[in-house]
Amino acid sequence: MKKKSLLIIAVFILLFCACKKDKTVGFIAEKAMVVSAREEASKIGAAILQKGGNAYDAMIATHLALAVVYPVAGNIGGGGFMVYRNNDGTTGALDFREKAPITAHRDMYLDSVGNVIKNKSTLGAFAVGVPGSIAGVFEVYNKFGSLPFKDLIQPAIDLAINGITVTEKQAKSLNSATERFKKVNNYITVFEKEWKKGDILKQEELAQTLERIRDLGKDGFYKGKTASLFVNYVKELGGIISLEDLEKYKAIWRKPITFNYKDFKITSMTLPASGGICLAQILKAVEPYDLSKIEHNSTKYIQLLTEAERRSYADRANFLGDIDFVNVPVDSLTNVKYINNRMKSFSWDKATPSSEVSHGKIIGYESDETTHYSIVDQFGNAVSVTTTLNTGYGSKVVVKGAGFILNNEMDDFSSKPGVPNVYGLLGSEANSIAPEKRMLSSMTPTIVEENGKLKMVVGTPGGSTIITSVLQNILNVTEYKMGMQESVDQPRFHHQWLPDVVRMEPNGFNEETKAKLETLGYKILERNSLIIGRVDAILVLPNGKLEAGADKRGDDAAAGF
Ligand code: GLY
């Protein structure tokens, strides 16, 4: 009898364990952490924190290390955005987005009959925007840096001289870009060879450029030898960036978008990044629904988020652009009444076709590769940075003699209204090209607070899918009470108004859910090559420790203490 009841208990425990989903817990640190696309960069950032540096010092070291160890998106030839929250609760944002060259013009990617010329805004020197990363790094340093700058940049220089160990994923990525490096450049770049896991990639010319930045500051990039090498090579290849463009570039401190979602305060990036506005619109559209009654990643959950996303991306395409050039009705777009009104056409019974969803009516105007890293320091400051060259290895132009890759961010403008960019995103006049204008971005570096305390630092690459990946991770943690790694591991889906498809990560969703969605009129797209974000995030646990969410979709890793 005793044996029998023990057996029943054992069977019950076994069944319970089998039903319980695996919950992966991420790397835990007591007080300080960096999570980025590569272990080397996270360790360099964490070592700066260990030396007594703050989150901003670590930001600079991590950013520069990524430019060496993660050339697909880490960069000094690109740009990005930073959102921060200091330990006293103050928040802010830095825009170091690229901008159009002075001689850029609205129709520069169109042929004589007004058609978009294929690849002109994505491949080669004509696709390059004026880079902002180094200006961004020095803005951060001048406002918040505490350690000597040379200590922050030297690890990246050493990494470039000694070489980085190529991972399996990186070898595949580099090999897939070889033909395009060859096509674009007029010499053999350091990135062209048949790479395999374990190879060492040394970048001597990049090290020399970083040394000039170490010794001369911002002028080591925007003036002098680096600037001449940059401009001369771009000209040789038919590009239009001038010395004046480089000299005039400025990173801009901006007021971030701040809003509440239920009990949480969310701070995210403002224009020219669309992330914060779209995130606010989508979360506000979802807020009236009781998610405790809607199962995570169920048909209903996917429906609700998809319909909110559809309406927000339609607004994105019509209204959003560089706020310094166009009048964007930010307050109206993020107004709860307006958002609820937009959701009135949503029905649980069938999909709203995107052809029936245009942008909303605003009464009166008031106004793929990318990479993300999250940092929390031992003083309680938090930094959320997303940076990019745009698509993998940007324009594929590697500045001869200077060793860094240039972005192809000009493709984030709308080359022609109604013609999608590389991410399938549409744009309007608001995001048309103009001299010195910043192109609209989807980047969404974000910080979440609960009861006035830091809760989460989050962001991701992924082009147009950035916003929806950040959104899903915020809901995973705030609504579904997941840990950080558990949240990052969840399969993700994405809708962006047009094309009218729900993109889903392969093998992530059950067949019944997909079948039900199709019955309701949703078109589903599942393809192996789809990138739906690579989230690197930090969660502050109830005991004050930090849990990392380092995305297993890449080589991402956390470091801390
Ligand atoms: N280049 C991608 C983005 O900024 O959204």
Unreliable residue stretches: 11-20
If you compute it from the alpha carbons, what radius of gyration comes out, rounded to the nearest whole angstrom? 23 Å
Mean pLDDT: 93
Strand order of the largest sheet: 1-18-17-13-12-9-8
Share of residues in strands: 15-25%
Going by helix content, strand content and strand pairing, the class is alpha+beta
Bound molecules: glycine
Number of strands: 19
Tally of helical runs: 17
- What is the percent of helical residues? 25-40%
Q: How would you sum up the major sheet? A: 7 strands, antiparallel
Identify the overall geometry.
globular
* Distance between the amino and carboxyl termini: 52 Å
Describe what you observe in this structure.
The chain has 561 residues and is α+β, with helices and mostly antiparallel strands. It contains 17 helices and 19 strands. The chain has helices at 2-19, 39-50, 55-69, 133-144, 149-162, 168-184, 204-216, 219-222, 224-236, 243-248, 275-286, 299-319, 330-333, 336-342, 466-478, 484-489, 511-519; strands at 28-29, 33-36, 79-85, 91-96, 164-165, 200-201, 252-254, 257-261, 264-268, 369-376, 382-390, 446-450, 453-458, 493-494, 502-504, 524-525, 536-540, 546-550, 557-560. The chain has a seven-stranded antiparallel beta sheet with strand order 1-18-17-13-12-9-8. The protein has a seven-stranded antiparallel beta sheet with strand order 7-4-3-11-10-2-19. Helix 3 (55-69) packs antiparallel against helix 4 and helix 11 packs across helix 14 (336-342). Mean pLDDT is 93; it is low at 11-20. The protein binds glycine. Glycine binds at residues 370, 388, 390, 409, 412, 441-443, 463. This is Glutathione hydrolase proenzyme. Pfam families: G_glu_transpept. It comes from Polaribacter marinaquae. Pathway: Sulfur metabolism; glutathione metabolism. Residues 1-20 form the signal peptide.
